[in-house]
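User: Please predict structures.

Assistant: First:
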Amino acid sequence: MEIQKTIEALNSLIVINNDRIEGYKTANEETNETDLKMLFSDLMQTSVACRRELVEEVKKLGGTPDGGTRTTGKFFRVWMDVKAALTGNDRESILNSCEYGEDVALETYKKVLVHDPQETNSKEQDMLNKQYALLKADHDKVKELRDTIANEKQHAE
């Protein structure tokens, strides 16, 4: 295990958490509905906590934590802005956008945990597995709410 590769892997997870934080800030600003604001705030807090642990680990390894977002994260935020404006803050559309972002976050974690496990030690893998479980629970909340709204819409038609 090369320390620089470990730092790069952890930094990729810091960046995806930065993307999530920015995406949920945008989603929070795009809705006036209290329940969605609370949901987005909770989802954002998950990434704030995950990012904090990742930053500590990168510093412990002697690296510099990445403070940016990925281009895809920027596109995600712009897409949410446009989508929300076009749909008049349609709950299902906003949640569809959020679920897409959740899928991207989970895939990034899977890449480090499954495809590149040699880049992290067992302690780091434990931390990442716990974070993955938190993000998966967040994903499932978004999906469940989105599905409930879609079903309500379908029954109303």
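Second:
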Amino acid sequence: MSAIHGPEAGTTTSLQFDDNNLLPMLYGQHDQNLARLEQLLSVSLVSRGNQVAISGPADSVEAASDALNALYHRLEKDLPVGDAEVDAAVRLARGAQGNAKPQATTKALHADELAIRTRKRHIHPRSPTQAAYLNALGSNELVFGVGPAGTGKTYLAVAKAVSLLTGGEVDRLILTRPAVEAGERLGFLPGDLREKIDPYLRPLYDALYDMLPAEQVVARLTSGEIELAPLAFMRGRTLSNAFIILDEAQNTTPVQMKMFLTRLGENSRMAVTGDLSQVDLPSGQPSGLRDSVDLLSGLSGVACIQFSNADVVRHSLVTQIVQAYEARDEAGGGRPGDLFGQS
């Protein structure tokens, strides 16, 4: 592909793509992908054969060009392109604009070294923050992922863990959550132990079944290679050769968080995820997630990644919902989910 630049004002650019066979997938049915880019970036896109002319504000034209190149790069690798991928390419392009070499940066974000390969799918970052998160998961023993719902905090951690498990780099995958709604006193709930705790762990099961064939999930759960348990069941254990994920960590107390973090054993990694705007602890009870991030964020081997509503990768309405709640929090003089001073 090549770019033909327009006037010095930088408001017009023409991209030329080499493989005509990829263009129907790049443009989308009835050019819906181009229309989506126009909507998101406030540019005008006109396709003629293997060329696309982009007009609009200079920064938007640059972002649209970068996004189209990134999508074309995906298609060259036989990866799908749909609405979600178009939205992700726009987020990545916008995030890369602050760098000296935005096109090179976006290409790096789509590079193979950041892709997670599981038995059922290949997973790429869909925002600059997700890319930073995946980098952190690959290079640190303890990673905190903090931010609103729908940003991929838990999903990407499970994907990374499954990839390391199937690749033989760890022996076990342990996923845990605090059963805060029941006060972690599960005895009064009906059913056996599995029936008592399953409702609290269902989101983690959903992520596993998205990564692995159902029969493998069942087999690995039976063998103990994959373990899902309430946080209270971690007490007294040392977890070696494992990838351990604590989800909904905003609902831990400082004592519970200390207990969990000190379970880390040899050749193990931990990912701790949570949303400080959705704390379900009793009023006045401090969150163990906030406490641990404040205390540990400067330590070697510890990474803290703050997500924002710009990283939401679910339905577009989720982004609007998160923004509405954040606007109300700001009007009230506080932002419960903002730990690191980032927008």
